Amino acid sequence: MPELDVTRIRRWAADRTAAEARGEARIEVDETARGVTIHEARPPWDQLAGRHWIRTPIARLRYVASRREWTLYRPDATGRFRRYDRAAPTRFVADLLLEIDDDPMSVFWR
User: Fold this and answer.
1) pTM for the whole thing?
2) What is the DSSP letter of 52?
3) pLDDT at residue 1, rounded to an integer
4) What percent of the chain has a predicted confidence (pLDDT) above 90?
5) Does residue 31 form part of some domain?
6) CA 27 centroid distance within chain
7) Cα separation of 29 and 69, whole Å?
8) Which residue segment(s) compose the domain that 94 sits in?
9) In a 3-state reduction of DSSP, which class is residue 39?
């Protein structure tokens, strides 16, 4: 994956979390060799849940090196990722981050 794009995704996630709210919610990213998964993380709501934050998947950005393209995926009701068909694969990850921000179909920020 292009390091510049991954850095852009990390910066986007950090910018989505206000400094004064970091103890209540934050946006986190998990990186793999093929893409990045974006999560919303919140502290456990009760002490029995332990100290681990509860993570809800928001989106997945998958990179295809042979085409140098990013594709956007959204989680469905079962937690599986489905291709988000309102945004075509693109070489510009910033376009997909804007689509997540805008969320015209209310599938990312529920």
Assistant:
1) 0.89
2) P
3) 92
4) 76
5) yes
6) 8
7) 19
8) 3-102
9) strand
Q: What is the mean pLDDT of the chain?
A: 92
Residue matched to tokens 């999560």: 39
Tell me the pLDDT tens digit for each residue of 46-92.
Answer: 666 567 888 999 999 999 999 999 999 999 999 899 999 999 999 99
109: in domain: no
List Cβ neighbours of 89 (8 Å cut-off, separation of 6 or more).
Answer: 64, 67, 69, 70, 71
Q: To which H or E segment does residue 7 belong? A: helix 3-15
Measured distance CA(71)–CA(12) in Å, rounded = 17
Q: Which residues have a Cβ under 8 Å from the Cβ of 80 and sit 6 or more positions away?
A: none
For residue 108, tell me if it sits in a domain.
no
Report if residue 107 sits inside a domain.
Answer: no
What is the count of structural domains for the chain? 1
